[in-house]
Amino acid sequence: MAVTDTGGAGAKRPSRLFRNMSAKIASIPMIFTAVVVFIGCTIWTIYHSFTRSRLLPAPEKWVGLDNYERLWGENRWLISIENLAIYGACSLILSLTIGFVLAALLDRKIRFENTIRTIILYPFALSFVVTGLAWQWILNPSLGLQNVVRQWGWESFTFDPLNNPEIVIFGILIAGIWQGSGFVMVLLLAGMRGIDEDIWKASRVEGIPTWKTYIFIVIPMMRPVFVTALVIISSGIIKVYDLVVAQTSGGPGIASEVPAKYVIEKMFQAQNLGLGFAASTMMLLSVLVVLIPWAYLEFGGKKNG
Amino acid sequence: MADATVNAAMTGPRGPKPKKAFSSTNIIIYGTLLVVCMYYLLPLYVMIVTSLKGMPEVRLGNIFAPPVEVTFEPWVKAWSEACTGINCEGLSRGFSNSVWILIPSVIISIAIASVNGYALANWRFKGSEVFFTILIFGAFIPYQVMIYPIVILLRESGDGITWFLRIFNEDASAFRLMGSLSGLVIVHTIFGMPILTLLFRNYFTSVPEELFKAARVDGAGFWGIYFRIMLPMSLPIFVVAMILQVTGIWNDFLFGVIYTKPETYPMTVQLNNIVNSVQGVKEYNVNMAATLLTGLVPLVIYFASGKLFVRGIAAGAVKG
Amino acid sequence: MKLTTKLLSASAIVAASSVSAVELEVTHWWTSGGEAAAVSEFAKAFDATEHTWVDGAIAGSGGTARPIIISRILGGDPMGATQLNHGRQAEELIEAGLLLDLTDVAEAEGWKDIVNPSSLLDSCTVDGRIYCAPVNIHSWQWIWLSHQAYADAGTDVPTNWDEFVASAPALEAAGKIPLAMGQQPWQSSGAFGVMAVAIAGVDAWSQVTVDKNPDAVMGPEYTKVFEAAANARAFAANSNVQDWNQATNLVITGQAGAQIMGDWAQGEFQVAGQVAGEDYTCLPGLGVNEVISTGGDAFYFPVQDDPEVEAAQKELAALLLSPEVQVAFNLAKGSLPIRGDIDLMAANDCMKKGLEILAAGNILPDGNQTLSPDTSAQLEDLMVEFWNDPSITAADAQQRYADIIASAD
């Protein structure tokens, strides 16, 4: 961007601060959001996680690591973390796989492509509350799917994920995938369409089977799209809250608790801000553990302008 | 290359051409897609069917069976009669509120994010990439972490504005951001910023540099280029941003419930109130009707503009 | 700053001379049938003055409503009045000066003399000042029995917990759920609390809940409680409803034999047109130990910088405790009035039982008043886990309960 240096109309070079002034002024909302809201609030939260804040923030009551000790001693937190790990891993793998397979199918010059794509994408337009309620209704053992299959004559059929603590998280996963995979599909489809037709021609000339072309040639070429999809999916996973509240309220028992729900309930219901902040700091930390290596790989290598 | 991506995305499928109409591959493809479509359509179908049944029929229980006797009672009840506390106005109370929250939030958040993306793509300055990275990290911060400090931030900024207003006019009434529409618009703008800025930045980066340089030579400045060159050629990405924001803001529950008050509750909060105000038995049919009513606006937008959305995604999100 | 104060005092004078109508927003989480009927009594009475009641109902439970209420008070956008359980939940808000001091209203209206039991007013009092208006007494210690369910099972309606336990197999044989239980955490921990008072006795209960003595949890009295709870868990195994009033509905419709629930369940029976003693039976203290706790609901009034609003707030506070409003409200809600000097002729059997126990002074403080919200929430977590996971033995739960009590504040 050498252009920007020729900025001012006059011969005198303006001082560094005033160069590119409009762009800086225009970026004030972004800088404010980044620094004051995201960084500021994060630091505020981390600081208060070391205090004995109850209903109101109490910056003067420093307790060190007490909140963290209690956090990791609580069964409910451990279950929340475990659920998030299962949900996160499954939903990441499944959304990407399902999204890719669907995109590949739609990319085969099929008829009704627009209709099918709209059908797969529409759940993304619904709120988690709506999704949660709809699937809660379908998975209701006495009125929903299980009941219907039993009415058809398969008396012993059991499918009650929302009432079985062992598999309840998968019941939530079904709804989560239903909502999110369409968007992943659209992203990947767009990426696939961006690949040069010559690649396909070449692979056909070479006699490489279609599936091999997808796995060894197409996927590596679609890396940037996968990264975008990954960012969008994983930022959604860590925040999963509404879906659980609408579908199971964390039940049965505490079997489907998730960290975001733990945080909000400790902060406002148990009136233990300090503990809630400690839990949210742990959530942040886990995000960083994933993000920093990625950011390093993505931006660290090249320094371009 | 970026330009090629955009154009390629517009031209349609790139996969190998299927040879025959009824080859075994085709049967597998269409078969799979049929099953997939059923999975995606099932909940919508169940919601619609349930919402048209009377309660006795719902309780009898085949959720997949079409209604024996079609009734619109649940829809009427959900829209205008369902009670929360002593208000029995149903969802209608929230509809106009949602519209009034939606319009300014969508316009302001997109305006700000597009300018941000433009500055980041074409007018980089020292530190701009750092701020951008922080912004992207912000997309991962759970909202729950921010609720509390933002409550304080809104309160303090409100007080600050009040103080400022009173310098000029001693009688100025207290200005409140917390609990007001403007506060909620700010919150939506802040939380929409990371993803939108990313989209706009990627899109503007793909605009050919020659265009930009030519405009500079003609003496156009920051705003001149933005309004005369960038805006006219970025319709697809604005459509994507609009669809994302309309659905995101319309569907928001958490901010709507925390940063507003009963008179200005959006529709999702009313929905939650109706669904959770159980009086005797759960009226699944009314709940489903209420759910569908709440989802109607984003659904219509998706069904109407699906193609534009896909095209815009191809243009904006693909280039990492 | 000086200017502002001047301005405020100036407008205060104006306000004093002319009474003007104020719209007061009141937030609460009373949205079930009986609750909504009760709250509309308040609204009616307040609308009859020159002011207007703006209803801010938030559905769900206190758990959904409280974050909203608290963040709005903290964010400087307070409502005119709000429901909160009194007790320790509001302590910090009071210390931060965010809630209106009602002492002058209380003195003018003579609350000290009329509020019975006086412990209700004590829990509104911090450093000798009064900050909330108690509106009713709710007691948890009830079990509700469905006559229809027992008729279908061909056995007599039990008169105490032991008989209920003995009758459970008959109910099950008749295809009934012996004990209806919702899944919300407060229900699990509440039901356990009821069993603790009834089975372990008041002494053991107060050693645990008031003195926070972990040894008492491990004592023989509480061992019996945990065993009984494990039994009850098996009785409730087939009850997969979420909300408390859905569970009550199972009892109303005769699908379930009984429910352990506070006296607010009464309102649901009333809305369904059922008559105490004919369609259903209520047993205080599970029919074993007739005491009731004296928790309840109270209204707090967040500080507003508008003297007109403040006057309206105080008017509402006085109104909530006035005899007519108390009668109308409590009859609809199924709770007991907070003043002993009013006549509840219209009260039904169950309320009369409650009033008698109250008059006899068989009362204990509510857990909300002795345990911090933090500790209560930990116990709720434990209980909801225990009620839903049969693999947790009574002894495990007992040990974990003791650990929480040991670290309680």
Blueprint (SSEs and pairs):
The complex is a heterotrimer of chains A (305), B (320) and C (409).
Chain A (H helix, E strand, L loop, with lengths): L20 H6 L1 H21 L17 H8 L1 H32 L6 H9 L6 H11 L6 H7 L16 H26 L3 H10 L3 H12 L1 H16 L3 H6 L11 H10 L4 H28 L5
Helix pairs in contact in A: 2-14, 3-14, 4-8, 4-11, 5-8, 6-8, 8-11, 13-14
Chain B lengths: L1 H10 L12 H28 L3 H6 L12 H9 L10 H31 L5 H11 L4 H26 L12 H25 L3 H9 L4 H9 L4 H17 L2 H5 L8 H10 L7 H33 L4
Helix pairs in contact in B: 1-14, 2-14, 4-14, 5-8, 5-11, 5-13, 6-8, 8-11, 11-14, 13-14
Chain C lengths: L1 H16 L5 E6 L4 H15 L4 E6 L4 H13 L6 E5 L5 H5 L7 H7 L1 H4 L4 H4 L2 E2 L2 E2 L1 E3 L7 E5 H7 L7 H13 L3 E4 L4 H25 L4 H5 L1 H16 L8 H9 L3 E5 L4 H7 L8 E5 L7 E2 L3 E4 L6 H14 L2 H11 L15 H12 L2 E2 L2 H4 L2 H16 L5 H13 L3
Parallel strand pairs in C: 1-2, 1-3, 8-9, 11-13
Antiparallel strand pairs in C: 3-12, 4-5, 6-12, 7-9, 7-10
Helix pairs in contact in C: 2-16, 8-9, 10-12, 10-19, 12-20, 19-20
Description:
The complex is a heterotrimer of chains A (305), B (320) and C (409). In chain A, 66% of the residues lie in helices and 0% in strands. With 305 residues, chain A is an all-alpha fold. Chain A has one domain (73-300): MetI-like (MetI-like fold), CATH 1.10.3720. With 320 residues, chain B is an all-alpha fold. In chain B, 72% of the residues lie in helices and 0% in strands. Chain C has 409 residues and is of the alpha/beta class. In chain C, helix 2 (33-47) links the parallel strand 1 and strand 2. Chain C is globular, with a radius of gyration of 22 Å. The chains are: A mainly alpha (305), B mainly alpha (320), C alpha/beta (409). Chains in contact: A-B, A-C, B-C. Chains A and B meet through helix 1, helix 2, helix 4, helix 5 and helix 6 of A and helix 1, helix 2, helix 5, helix 6 and helix 7 of B.
- The total tally of domains of chain A equals 1
Strand order of the largest sheet of chain C: 2-1-3-12-6
How is the main sheet of chain C built? 5 strands, mixed
CATH-assigned fold name of the largest domain in chain C: D-Maltodextrin-Binding Protein, domain 2
